[in-house]
Amino acid sequence: MPLRISVCPFRLLFKHPFGTAHGLRDGTDALFIRVEDEGAVGFGEIALPPYVRESVLDARARLRQIAAFRSWTLDDLLLQIDELESLKGAPATRAGLHCALLDASARRSGKTVAQVLACSVKESPSVLMTIGICDPDLVLQRMAELPATGAIKLKVGDSLAFKRISIVVESTDARILLDGNQGFSSIDEAENLVALVPPIRLIGLEQPFNPAHDDWNQKLTKRTGVQVFADESLQDLGDLVRVSDFFNGINIKLMKCGGLDKARALVVQAKQLNMRVMLGCMSESSLGCTAMAQLTGEAAVIDLDGPWLLRNDPWLGITVDKGTMILPEGPGLGVRSEIELDYSDA
Fold it and tell me: At CB < 8 A and 24+ separation, what contacts does 210-213 make?
């Protein structure tokens, strides 16, 4: 029997409307992928927030083309995935398919995906839990709903950001990462916000400016000493050397870079450039976040809190215990579905 590719569209819903400098949304469209070859089964996730170019319909059409192109084996498709025209310009679709193939291959060999990727295994670094843009009166309530990790990511870039930061600084001893999502229009504006957080508690500032002003980040660091992480300014490996001139670190996301193999390559080169590595997500479920968590031993900051922001996560995977992120046991990704998902051929 040839490799079978099946898909399940799914709308991931937030517990609360999630606000960033991009706007407010109630959920994320996703497409779960299941591959099976000679009894080896693996899973992957394509998560598509509204600001990316891909869509569920587009992803499904690309996977249908791949399935119809020839009778694949698991090993053949893994080996030839970058030769497929159907995946050109579709990093999220590639990421989901590659993850499913890698999961199946690792399960077949009895290894974890982390072992297949040759990633070190150690206690996870700073584990962030995110508070989106919201009314300041809701900040402490939102924090109480999340696992206590000692580190908070605050979405900023709006007029109430100063108040939310002050509440977290005054009410907790948590370390803080500020995420601007390109929402700042000047270096002075970012500097005033950074000054609200005691330096010993400030993990860094993520993507404060539009990529057209990447040089502002270097100037901000010189003025404040803040570590600035690239997000929207970094799409793939080709951007890394350029952004290393302006940023101290990078936020790697599977849906942007195109897969765990691509993420691993980014980690290696970022370390060669003396940049700090953050592992991020685009509000994926436990499936996508557990996939990225295979690299936790290689990172300085973990921003994989998607599962804790959702009210209908259909997967069981990573957990948090005493502030540390824990990978599930078992071969492959170690994930399992909590509900029965309705797959059909791609």
Answer: 210/182, 211/182
- pTM greater than the 0.85 cutoff: yes
| CB of 257 closer than 8 Å to CB of 91 | yes
Write the DSSP assignment of 252-276 as a string of letters. EEHHHH-SHHHHHHHHHHHHHTT-E
Distance CA 187, CA 178 (A): 15
| Domain locations along the chain | 4-110, 116-337
Cα-based angle 101, 48, 142 (whole degrees, multiple of 5): 110
pLDDT per residue as tens digits for the range 27-77:
999 999 999 999 999 999 999 998 889 999 999 999 999 999 999 999 999
Question: Which amino acid would we find at residue 78?
Answer: L
CATH superfamily of 116-337: Enolase-like C-terminal domain (3.20.20.120)
d(C-alpha 109, C-alpha 7), whole Å: 24
Could you say which architecture CATH assigns to the domain 4-110? 2-Layer Sandwich (3.30)
Taking the alpha carbons of 215, 196, 145, 325 in that order, is the dihedral positive or negative?
A: positive
Token duo for residue 224? 């404040």
